[in-house]
Structure formats: C-alpha cells, structure tokens
Write a structure and sequence with these properties.
Strand order of the largest sheet: 1-2-3-14-10-17-8-7-4
Enzyme class: oxidoreductase
Largest sheet: 9 strands, antiparallel
Distance between the termini: 106 Å
Number of domains: 1
Keywords: Dioxygenase, Glycoprotein, Iron, Membrane, Metal-binding, Oxidoreductase, Signal-anchor, Transmembrane, Transmembrane helix
EC number: 1.14.11.2
Strand content: 15-25%
Number of strands: 17
Radius of gyration: 31 Å
CATH class: Mainly Beta
CATH topology: Jelly Rolls
CATH superfamily: q2cbj1_9rhob like domain
GO cellular component, one term: endoplasmic reticulum membrane
Structural class: alpha+beta
Protein name: procollagen-proline 4-dioxygenase
Length: 296
C-alpha cells in the first residue's frame, strides 16, 4: 500500500490508448493547416484581406448641398475624374452628374458630328415634322442609337444613372452654339398626341456638356423655385443666366432634369432654355428619354 498522500482537486493527466490523438492536438493541427492555406492564397493574390482606407472627398470649385459618389459603368473612352451627383433643384427635379464624360468622349462626339451639322429645327406640334424657328439658332445633328461601341457605352451609362432603359431613349443629338446663338425657354414634353405615338411622353432629359463656355451659354430654368442669386456660382453667370436657375456649361458634366413629376403628371417648372453665347463656343449632347420604348 502506497504511503504518498492523495491531493484532492488535481486530476491526474488523461492517458490515451496507443494510436489515439488528443482532440486539442487535432484542433491545433487543423488551425495550423488552415492558416498555412490562407497564407498561400494571399501570396498568389487569390484572396485579399479587407482594408478600410479613407477616400478623398470630391473637390469642386462650387460646393453645393447634398452630394453622393456615383460609379460609372461601361467602357467608353479615356479616364474620367471623380464622379458625383449634385442636387441643384427639387422643383423642377434637376441634378448635375460631374465628370459624366471623359475629355476623350467629348472630343469624339464633337468630331463625329462636325461634318454633318445643319441648322437646328423644332418639332411641329401638328405634323410632328421638323421646322425652322427663330427661337432656336444653333446647329445640330442626330447620332443613331447604338451606332458604335463608344455610343453604346455612353448610352448604357445614361441608362444606369437614370434607371431608364436604353430602348426608351432617342438617339444622341449633338448641338453647337456660336456667339449670339441661343434657345429660347421651352418644354421638352409634348402637348399633342402625334408626337407621343412613338414611346409616349418624354419624361426626362440628360444634357451633356462637351465643351466649356467662356461666357454665356448657360442652361436656364426661368420658373424654378431656386434662384441663381442663392447659388455659389452666381457671379460666374451672365445676365441671362441670373434670370431664374442658371447652370454654367462645364465640359464632361451632365445635367439631368425631369419633365414629368413622380406622379406621372407634366411638370411646367421644367421650362428651360439656352442663354446666348457671349464668348467662345458651346458644344453639347442631348438625350431625350420616353415613358415607353422609343423605336429608333
């Protein structure tokens, strides 16, 4: 009989039969194998650890209200700067998408259109045909919807931004305004049945600026509930641009405004026009979008 005293509260080490491994050893082995496998994946770039890094806030010479970062889609041409949306009005609904187009895309559209520019016209509300008018003194032309890879990329970007399918849009219209040329205030929606047979009513317009304008050439909303006097860029506007809500043309930016309210009624506050160019040239591209599919 052993004379060594037994110590209470201390369990003797468990002895496992030969060939049987402790569960703690198994867990440790699995953990080591998993760690080694993860390191191999990281080394070959198959897996990456999430790392949060602060992104620089967008800089613009005229800060304005609510802003939100927006991601572009599609291939297109060239590199675009920091993209973000600026709310300029809720009555009518109007937003500026900064750096919507790259410089290369702006130049591409201008060069594509230059050989085919003709005197701009307006739509006759009775016949639906184009006619000359003194209220519109620019020159312009239409690019067929989906005509090449660059156009398709831009049109897809428009659809992603507006949530309006590509098939609901008319072809891009390229416009050129020289010194003194303008477009008197007008509506983009129709008040007759003839022009709504194809695609229904025009619900929204995206106006893309393809060039800067030294002076004048603003897009003006005469009846907007916001006046230009309250805007940071008020001093940059011409006298015409100060009569209501004026937006100065900046190459690459796009102005989205809605001709219809969320309840599908027409918005008379969407009345808009193009101020006369005082110095320089103004190039722009317009995309009109309809409620239904527009058969190009």
């Amino acid at each position: 009989m052993s004379s060594r005293p037994l110590m209470r509260g201390i369990r003797p080490p468990r002895v496992y039969p030969k060939g049987r491994t402790s569960p703690y050893a198994i867990a440790l082995t699995v953990l080591l194998v998993a760690s080694a496998f993860l390191l191999v994946l990281i080394a070959f770039g198959i897996f990456s650890l999430p790392i949060n890094s602060p992104s620089p806030s967008p800089k613009h010479e005229r800060p304005r209200r609510a802003r939100s970062a927006v991601q572009s889609s599609g291939d297109g041409l060239g590199e675009k700067g920091q993209q973000w949306t600026e709310v300029i009005s809720w009555e009518p609904r109007a937003f500026i998408y900064h750096n919507f187009l790259s410089k290369e895309e702006c130049d591409y559209l201008i060069e594509l259109a230059k050989p085919h520019m003709v005197k701009s016209t307006v739509v006759d509300s009775t016949t639906g045909k184009s006619k000359d008018s003194r209220v519109r003194t620019s020159s312009g032309m239409f690019l067929q919807r989906g005509r090449d890879k660059v156009i398709r990329a831009i049109e897809k970007r428009i659809a992603d931004y507006t949530f309006i399918p590509v098939e609901h849009g008319e072809g891009l219209q390229i416009l050129h305004y020289e010194i003194g040329q303008k477009y008197e205030p007008h509506y983009d929606y129709f008040l007759d049945e003839f022009n709504t047979r194809n695609g229904g009513q025009r619900m929204a317009t995206l106006l893309m600026y393809l060039s800067d304008v030294e002076e004048g050439g603003e897009t003006i909303f005469p009846d907007a509930k916001v006046n230009s006097s309250s805007l940071p860029w008020h001093d940059e506007l011409s006298e015409c641009g100060k009569r209501g809500l004026g937006v100065k043309a900046k190459a690459g930016d796009a102005l989205l405004f809605w001709s219809m309210k969320p309840d599908a009624t027409l918005d008379p506050l969407s009345l808009h026009g193009g101020c006369p160019v005082i110095r320089g040239n103004k190039w722009s591209s317009t995309k009109w979008m309809h409620v239904q599919e527009y058969k190009a």
